[in-house]
Write a structure and sequence with these properties.
Strand order of the largest sheet: 5-4-3-7-6
Oligomer: single chain
Distance between the termini: 35 Å
Helix content: 10-25%
Order of helices and strands: EEEEEHEEEEEHE
Radius of gyration: 14 Å
Strand content: 35-45%
Number of helices: 2
């Protein structure tokens, strides 16, 4: 897949003031925000907004090269290939090897936590439990 097809144009905020480009492989998770009826797309160092339903964007991103995007509850989907740490006590995924207060985190539904572990095994993704 060429570089252009791995890019996603997102709004810089929920008001659509500006646009920016994010690379699909850099996306760590997406979350649906009900108050603005759209999703926030997160990378380690930025975020962007896309209007529309969660299920539409999960399917679209999966079909556009982000095959490791995995829905983990009704509002969140995470990029399995970016997980570094899992917290089974609080059902959270972290995307950096050392957790700080500033790090982004994705909550996983209790019912889906074991499915995430299985999917990580399926793609041979190494991770640590915290």
């Amino acid at each position: 897949m060429d570089t252009v097809s791995q890019q996603l144009t997102v709004a810089t905020d929920t008001k659509g003031i500006g646009l920016k480009t994010m690379l699909l492989p850099e996306i760590i998770f997406i979350e649906y925000v009900r108050s603005v009826k759209g999703i926030m797309v997160h990378s380690l160092d930025s975020q962007g907004f896309l209007p529309g339903p969660f299920s539409f964007w999960v399917s679209t991103l999966q079909g556009s090269g982000l095959s490791t995007l995995f829905p983990v509850d009704r509002n969140n989907a995470l990029n399995l290939a970016k997980i570094e740490l899992l917290d089974p006590k609080f059902n959270k995924a972290y995307f950096e090897k050392v957790v700080t207060r500033k790090d982004k985190v994705c909550t996983i539904a209790l019912a889906n936590f074991n499915a995430v572990i299985q999917e990580l095994k399926n793609i041979n993704r190494m991770y640590k439990i915290v």
